[in-house]
Amino acid sequence: MNSQAIAAKIKNIVWSITRGVLLIGLIFVVIYPILLKAITAVKHKDDIYNPVVLLVPEKFTLDNIKHVIEVMDYWQTLFNTFALSSVTMILQIVACALAGYGFAKWKSKWSTLLFAGVVATILIPPQTIILPMYLTFQNFDFFGLMQLFGADKGFNLLNTYWPFILTGITANGLKSGLFIYIFRQFFMNMPKDLEEAALVDGASVVKTFTSIIIPSAVPAIVTVALFSFVWQWNDTFFVASYLPGMQILSNELLSLSSEVGVYVTQGMGLGYDEANDPFYHSMLVGTGLMLAILPLIIMYLFVQRLFVESIERTGIVG
Amino acid sequence: MNKRKQITFEQKKRNLAIMFIVPWFIGFLFFFINPLITSLTFSFNKLDVTNNGYTLTWAGLDNFKFAFTVHESFNRLITEAAIDMIINVPLIIIFSLFLATLLNQKFRGRAFARAVFFLPVILASNIIADIESTSMMTSLMSGDDSSSFELLKSVNLEIMMLESGFPPNLVEYLTGAVDRIYAIISKSGVQILIFLAGLQSIPASLYEASKIEGATGYETFWKITFPMVSPLIPIIVVYSIIDSFMNNEVTELINTIGFANINFGLSSAMSWIYFLLIAIILAVSTGLISRKVFYNN
């Protein structure tokens, strides 16, 4: 081995070590808060004042989790949230895939103009349109059709899933603009030969779409599915506006702190000191947060490989 | 014969495409354009809620004037939001490009590292961040002077850099970045993904050629990697800017005024001012950046 090769090898090793240290440090920064919450969830309240305990608790307990499940009505809430996120996800995938395909294949000045509209839906902050939307759904009347047929007032769709279904099915829901953009990029990059081959083999246009285009769009679908599900799960803005009275995780989290306060003072029969202990209170709130993100983390563990691969093949890059 | 069939196929495809856009278009009119116009009218009116709906009284520019000249915190919050954006977005972009380059290299545990860095995308819930920042448990556990997290604080680094003669503003910016590393990581998930996808689409032959020519890693990055991913920078800038304006104190204020104080007119006026600010920032920044971008066409 000559000296140059040795130098190159040393350089390589040094770089590997630097990279390792950097990545481990950054990974620690990401994982640390989650770890903290997980530990808080299983910590006994005596351990708060135990000076020895910093990270690893001395007494493990599931009491915190039990209490918080009761406070949040966790299972019902989880079911509602899951239903909402799944329904939105499926509708968004279908509607945005269709619109994305439309925008990718229809080339004219009108489609350019309409696509500018899609971009506008991405750019304009939802705060700008939420008030009129709220009023629309409070008194829902499709283009005034109902009044035409004699009803004096529209439906009140607040506190139902309908606002999410209606905006989802028309590809105008939470971040739909972005999803249409992703699908459009994907379909635009798709080789034309595929479709033409299907045509030569005698498939109709619709048949081509359902059996050629959709199956090859799996990476884009996975990407959109994950984002749509997760963003709906984490969304507080639309949920708080359209479903103020419903048991959805993000609503429960908003009121968690005060509900825990009520619960510890009334529900547990604790002494004054314990009930008013701010550390115990925030321990329960932290457990609630953990329970809210836990389902996402579990699901992510299953789909992450698929997700990371899909994103790379989605061609967001164009 | 063949040609005719070709045309009809194209036409059929076009019709199908138009048909697919129709649902979106209905929603666009009904759930976007319509509320947008309504919101614009609200902003020029005083809105009173009555038993069966609401009445509007023309108020001209009163709402806008109120937001700028009378309201106690609107000006301050909107300036803060803009400054935050200007500080954070360059950091997010540099950081995500850096991390994407790292994650694109081959090493053991790469799949795990990638999965971890996308975790913040999954957990990017505003409310969690809110509760977190006020949580006593977190502050107790991360400690004031004794915990391991202290390692990440950049006090020593700051003193060292100041002593070696760096300009104080730059030092403050950089050390501020280190202290806000979690906020930056948690906001750069999507950007890392986009850069990573871009890096993968760079043909390997370019790197091989440069290696044969004897380019160093540093040169390869600036002459190949950076120019090849630079077309992505406008998209990423736009995304980061929009993202940073999605949830902050201004949007909270707009919500409170609208839903809690039932002052829809003022709330709409504020959200339009806010939107115009974002639009101006977007236009200026994309205008500046797209001139510098290298397109490999």
Compact description:
The complex is a heterodimer of chains A (318) and B (297). With 318 residues, chain A is mainly α.
Description:
The complex is a heterodimer of chains A (318) and B (297). In chain A, 75% of the residues lie in helices and 0% in strands. With 318 residues, chain A is mainly alpha-helical. Chain A has two domains: 3-41; 66-314, MetI-like fold, CATH 1.10.3720. Chain A is flat, with a radius of gyration of 26 Å. The two termini of chain A are 45 Å apart. The mean pLDDT of chain A is 82. Chain B is mostly helical and 297 residues long. Chain B has a single domain (71-292), classed as MetI-like (MetI-like fold, Orthogonal Bundle), CATH 1.10.3720.10. Chain B has 15 helices and two strands. Chain B has a two-stranded antiparallel sheet with strand order 1-2. In chain B, a hairpin with a 2-residue loop joins strand 1 (45-50) and strand 2. Chain B is globular. The chains are: A mainly alpha (318), B mainly alpha (297). Chains A and B meet through helix 1, helix 3, helix 4, helix 5 and helix 7 of A and helix 1, helix 4, helix 5, helix 6 and helix 9 of B.
Q: Quick one: biggest sheet of chain A?
A: none
How many beta-strand runs of chain A? 0
For this structure, what is the CATH class of the largest domain in chain A? Mainly Alpha
Subunit arrangement of the protein: heterodimer
The secondary-structure class of chain A comes to mainly alpha
The H/E string of chain B reads HEEHHHHHHHHHHHHHH
In this structure, how is the largest beta sheet of chain B organized?
2 strands, antiparallel
Tally of structural domains of chain A: 2
State the order of secondary-structure elements of chain A, H for helix, E for strand. Answer: HHHHHHHHHHHHHHH
